Amino acid sequence: KSRRFFGIVSRAERYGATFIADGRDEVLTAVRENLRFGASQIKLMAGGGTSSAYDPVDVTQYTLDEMKAAVEAAEDWGTYVTVHAYTPRAIRRAIEAGVKCIEHGQLLDEETLQLIAKKNIWLSLQNLVEDTPDMDPQRRIKRKPVIVGQEKVWPMAKKYGVKLAWGTDFLFEPELNKMQNAFILRLQKWFTNAEIIKMITQDNCELLQLSGLRSPYPGKLGIVEEGALADLILVDGDPLKNLKLLADPEKNFLLIMKDGQIHKNSLQRH
């Protein structure tokens, strides 16, 4: 079907990446179907978004019972639920339901950040790209409080010791993927080079390992030892002293190993 009640279905639905599910029974079915398709973890849209056509950023989506249904189904498969959410209301409901990670959260307040820290829940923040010249005017309006909020949330999250993960959210601007390493440098406003490198490697891996046996990665992640997944990058220089080395991987990544297989090796030139 091309439509569900009213309007054209979203691009993500057409790709088979998401389901629209209303009510506990539909949520259980959607989560189980995603897991049967091979999902390593489940992401719920707990609030509005800046890229979607219909839902304002401030709205809360899914009742507590619906969110709990998703968490129960995921836990039955040994994995976890993460939520797309910006506002304290949506995030507090997700926390009560038992989710393990909040994605985005740029509109968080101090009190809710303290709760996230207390509950040892992960916060996967981004430093989102600024508006582009060809961006839809309505999307600009929706994004504005989020762009402003991210400057406040990063330092507050560090202050309260929130478990932080790093992402880019370049999903809707794939042409920006070549810039993703450069965006790491934006974290230098609030973190040391060592803290940043740990976040984008070991800490991100710790979050992914919450998916247990559903993880597609064999071996331990985020650590160099026998039996670990052999994803390694050899950098020409010391990123602890000069983080800008990471922003130009073509030039500065001498060796790239993925799952024990070498995909780039320019050591012979050095």
Tell me about the biggest sheet? 5 strands, parallel
Q: Order of helices and strands, N to C?
A: HHEHEHEHEHEHHEHEE
Strand order of the largest sheet: 1-2-3-4-5
Measure the end-to-end span. Answer: 57 Å
Fraction of helical residues: 25-40%
Number of helices: 9
Mean pLDDT: 91
Strand residue content: 5-15%
How large is the radius of gyration?
A: 20 Å
Tell how many strands the DSSP assignment holds: 8
Instruction: Characterize the overall form.
Output: globular
Low-confidence stretches: none
Structural class based on helices, strands and sheet pairing: alpha/beta
Give a structural overview.
- With 270 residues, the protein is α/β, with parallel strands linked by helices.
- Helix content is 36%, strand content 13%.
- The chain is built from 9 helices and 8 strands.
- It has helices at 11-14, 23-36, 64-76, 88-97, 110-118, 137-159, 180-184, 193-208, 249-252, and strands spanning 42-45, 81-85, 101-104, 122-125, 163-166, 232-235, 253-258, 261-265.
- Strand 2 (81-85), helix 4 (88-97) and strand 3 (101-104) form a beta-alpha-beta unit.
- Helix 2 (23-36) packs parallel to helix 3 (64-76) and helix 3 (64-76) crosses helix 4 (88-97).
- The longest helix has 23 residues, at 137-159.
- The N and C termini lie far apart (57 Å).
